[in-house]
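Predict the 3D structure for this chain.
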Amino acid sequence: MKHLVFLAGFAVVLAGVMGCQDENKVNGVSVDNSGEFPEFLAGTWKADKHDWQISFKDDGSVSSIVHFIWTLPIDINEGGYFVEGPDEGTHALFVIGPCEAGYDKDTRELSVKIILERYIIKLPHGTLEGKSHDFFEGSISEDGKTWKAEWKNYGWLDGAAPPDANVIEANPVLLVFTKIDAK
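Done. Predicted structure below.
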């Protein structure tokens, strides 16, 4: 248990240090020439498949997610999530890295990057460890209530072959996000 607490703390510090350093971004948010993230995008957006949810603050920063690997909300500001499993000795740890959003008002394109720096899922008969990088990009509807996004997931599982970028790029998953609540 002490090892996991140390690992989580180290990962949170590492994620903070490795955050976005791009001068055109503030708090991981890239905006169009107006310099502001549109107010109508603030709130929670839920995908029609794979249990994804992404919540934006007024400034466009990602405040929380529901990740497809673990269908419980993860507060980005806390840097991760730890939960005891139902069986003795089981647990899951998720360490969130940089999460970035960008919006271009001329094209109505919203893009989001979610980095899961590390996950460790301890099961009764083994452990799954890895990381994932998820990218979402697509257009916001004229009424501002839906976002049709292409999702590209690069997932690494320790001990398995790395993801094939050519296959992922050629086969994005189409998700339709609906705004389920305002800011």
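Residues 2-17 form the longest helix (16 residues).
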